[in-house]
Amino acid sequence: MLFTLLTLVAIANAAVIRKDTGVKIIIGNDDGWAVANVRRAAATLKSGGYQTLISAPADNKSGSSSLEFPPIPLITAGQFNTIPAGAAASGVDASDPNAFYVNSFPATAMEYGIEKIAPTIFGSAPDLAVTGPNVGSNLGLVTQFSGTIGAAAEAVKHGIPAIAFSGAGGSQHIFTEADPVADVYAQVAKKLVDAVVASGAPYLPANVALNVNFPVSDATTCTQLSDYHFVQSRVNVDINPFTKDVNQCGNDHLPTESSVIESGGCRVSVSAFWATSKLDVDKATQAAVRSKIGGLFECKP
Ligand SMILES: *[C@@H]1O[C@H](CO)[C@@H](O)[C@H](O)[C@H]1NC(C)=O
């Protein structure tokens, strides 16, 4: 009996140690806290040993860029009726103690999560922020209007390195439904997060976030993790003929993220951008990112 008790204590202690040492990731989005994509991403990261916390809008707030507004109680029911009208400005999912809604814009939900929720769930600031995967691509100039990008940029402004994920496939529906696209996108996102974390802190250069876009996935296309190939990219076309990007596969101009996604082959675009302007970083900063996660990138087959 004593042996059993000691064993249980040992297991409990091991669980506590694991929880306390896993890298702490705050997860936001702009499609709303109850969509499959964000919940699958959190679950997949958690199963990989990370500590996770979702802090996302109470409803679909696509296209909110970096808008902010203090969270207010819900006037109407929250997304997919997951929150009753009249509920508090922020709350937790009764079935998931690490999933929180914030009734405001994506950037505010991220800020609120960092300042108010993370201290109680993590006991400290998050180590890394992830947003999405958004339902729908965020490529080129569209990034200026994206709440997925806005929430990631907000995290960087609070000193938290951030990665925004978006996918050309999938749809916005409740997380309790099966969603193979959300499942595979979550695994691809985790592969990138693993590489960033393995590169050591600081996970990204100061004031920089990553914009990551996944290609279309459906029943027959890009269905499993091994189908996906990462490529370093630019957010926008480089209109200055004299500037050069970091060298990739013998080329000193990175492809635009749009061209990577349009080229097929289940290629994933990874662009580094300044959190303040949401524009491309310079060559030296591209190189700094490449020196950290360059092992992930492949030349076009
Ligand atoms: C979410 O909001 C965006 C922007 O208003 C809209 O285009 C999209 O259809 C909405 N999605 C759903 C599932 O309502």
Short characterization:
The protein is α/β, with parallel strands linked by helices and 301 residues long.
> How would you sum up the major sheet?
9 strands, mixed
Ligand roster = 2-acetamido-2-deoxy-beta-D-glucopyranose
Tally of helical runs: 7
Please, how many domains? 1
Protein name: Survival protein SurE-like phosphatase/nucleotidase domain-containing protein
GO molecular function: metal ion binding; nucleotidase activity
Pfam family, one: SurE
InterPro entries: SurE, SurE-like_Pase/nucleotidase, SurE-like_sf
What characteristics describe this protein?
Stationary-phase Survival Protein Sure Homolog, Chain: A, 9-stranded mixed β-sheet, 32% helix, globular, binds 2-acetamido-2-deoxy-beta-D-glucopyranose, SurE, metal ion binding, SurE-like_sf, metal-binding, hydrolase
